[in-house]
Structure formats: structure tokens, C-alpha cells
Automatic annotation (TrEMBL):
NCBIfam families: tspaseT_teng_N. This is Transposase. It comes from the Bacteria. The lineage of its organism: Bacteria, Bacillati, Bacillota, Clostridia, Thermoanaerobacterales. It comes from Caldanaerobacter subterraneus subsp. pacificus DSM 12653. InterPro entries: Transposase_put_N.
Length: 116
């Protein structure tokens, strides 16, 4: 697999909002799929439910399920409790949880954590 990182540059704010909305829905879909995989749902049922719930096409839903399954398998291989997985990064979560920062810096970190 080849991974390419790129910075998206938007000509207007509307395009940026559309992409951010898509990213949020996909991220939520992946987290939802992870929870349902823990409950024992199969892929076909999960795919059908996720497409209706998050208004994503089947390719995006398949990718979300695949990523959720990978996170679940990784957690089990590392002998961690799969129910205690934190999406968005544990360090960032701890900073937000402790609330040692205030104002704009806190809001920036909160937004960053929600978008992961």
C-alpha cells in the first residue's frame, strides 16, 4: 500500500465545509462500526445500517468497517481491552480531560480531537 500525504487548499469556505462534513461523517461511521463489531454484528448488516445512518456510499462505508476491524484486531493482538480504545489520540484526550489549558488553545485542541 502506498500512502501519500497532501495538504488540501480550498478556493472558498463552502468547499472546505463540504469536505470537513464528509470527514466527520466518515470518522463517526468508523467509530460506530467499531462499537458494532464489538457487539458482534456481521459486515453485511453493518454496511446496510451505516449507509442509511451516515449517508455515505458503499465504498466509504466499506473503508470505515475495514479500518474499525483493523483497530479491533490490533487492540486484541496487543492484549489491550478493546472497549477502552480512544479515537483521536490518547495524549490529546488526556490534555483535554485535565483542562490545564484555557480559552482559544483549549478550543483548538478540542476541534483537532473531534476531527480525528
Amino acid at each position: 500500500m502506498i500512502v501519500i500525504q497532501a495538504k488540501l487548499i480550498f478556493l472558498n469556505q463552502q468547499d472546505k465545509q463540504i469536505v470537513l462534513d464528509l470527514m466527520r461523517r466518515w470518522s463517526s461511521c468508523m467509530k460506530f462500526a467499531y462499537k458494532r463489531l464489538l457487539e458482534g454484528y456481521d459486515r453485511k448488516t453493518l454496511k446496510r445500517d451505516l449507509q442509511g445512518t451516515f449517508d455515505l456510499n458503499s465504498r466509504y462505508v466499506d473503508d470505515a468497517i475495514m479500518k474499525a476491524r483493523g483497530v479491533l484486531e490490533s487492540s486484541r493482538q496487543l492484549d489491550n481491552n478493546p472497549k477502552k480504545v480512544i479515537f483521536g489520540g490518547r495524549d490529546l484526550f488526556k490534555k483535554l480531560q485535565n483542562r490545564h489549558i484555557n480559552g482559544k488553545e483549549y478550543q483548538k485542541l478540542k476541534t483537532k480531537w473531534q476531527e480525528k
